[in-house]
Amino acid sequence: MNFFNFSNTKKSFFIVFSEKKYFFLTFFTAFFIVSFLNFIANFDFISSTLTSNFTLMQKISIIFSLFGGIFSTNTELTLFLVVLLGVLAGINFSFLIFIFRRDKKLFSGHHGVLGFFSALFSTGCTSCALSLASILGFGGILAFLPFNGLELTVFGILLLLFSINQSANSVLGLCK
Fold this sequence. Notes:
This protein has 176 residues and is mainly alpha-helical.
């Protein structure tokens, strides 16, 4: 058995994305994940801004200005990995929604759900991963990783690729 059958994934990609709504779903999912990872790194700043005495328009302006900071605070590799995670998670999510709508089963692919949530935990940079991990109570474990959390990103990408492959097989009806 192949770990990743590109032929099946390609066929499934054309089936799912023959409907434009899945392109939009992939885009919005990727945008949500990239935004979430950007905002989680600035969680304390955002919460203090929201509870400050600024006007509502000033608060919105400050929070949206964080998008500009994503380019100045991250390396090219980090940006590439975060966008790649977002796009792969978006593709995976589109496959899952396609399968759900076709089969009317919410958890027809547990690999897909696991792969989607791995994108949230496998951020591109150590500071983002540390922020999310510490909010969830896992902050200290990153100190023991030899590549400062980059392993989580690579693991997340591999898990998403596996998940997309499994979901592609489900789209084609090769596994039930």
